[in-house]
TrEMBL record:
Presence of the UniProt keyword Transmembrane in the record: no
Enzyme class at the top of the EC tree: hydrolase
Protein name, as recorded: Phosphoribosyl-ATP pyrophosphatase
Record-linked Pfam families: PRA-PH
GO CC, one annotated term: cytoplasm
One MF annotation (Gene Ontology) recorded for this entry: ATP binding
Gene (UniProt): hisE
NCBIfam families from the UniProt entry: histidine_hisI, PRK00400.1-3
EC number, UniProt record: 3.6.1.31
TM annotation in the entry: none
Top-level taxon of origin: Bacteria
Length: 108
């Protein structure tokens, strides 16, 4: 159940629904709305995640974080990126302090 491949399977599902009919696919509806519609959903899900955290409701935190990740994956697909691209970046940062990582961004 905690298999990391769920991200890859979800990315494949998102990819397959990008060009579906908007009346039959939520993903297609978001893609049809363009980047602004996708970004609006990410902002909404971010706010809901924040509120769940402020309320201390762990079940709701998990639920809202799943929604946030899902919508971030739609944004990745919009830009022709995949979860593997993000995982590679996280791997690059592994073992690096946040201060080091931030410094590496300003020097590049």
């Amino acid at each position: 159940m905690s298999d990391i491949n769920i991200l890859r399977r979800l990315a494949q599902t998102i990819e397959s629904r990008k060009s579906a009919e908007t009346n039959s696919s939520y993903v297609a509806k978001l893609f049809h709305g363009g980047q602004d519609k996708i970004l609006k959903k990410i902002a909404e899900e971010s706010a809901e995640t924040i509120m769940a955290s402020k309320d201390g409701n762990t079940g709701q935190i998990i639920y809202e974080t799943a929604d946030l990740w899902f919508h971030c994956m739609i944004l990745l697909a919009f830009h022709e990126l995949s979860p593997d691209d993000v995982l590679k970046e996280l791997e690059r940062r592994e073992g690096m302090s946040g201060i080091q990582e931030k410094a590496s961004r300003t020097s590049n």
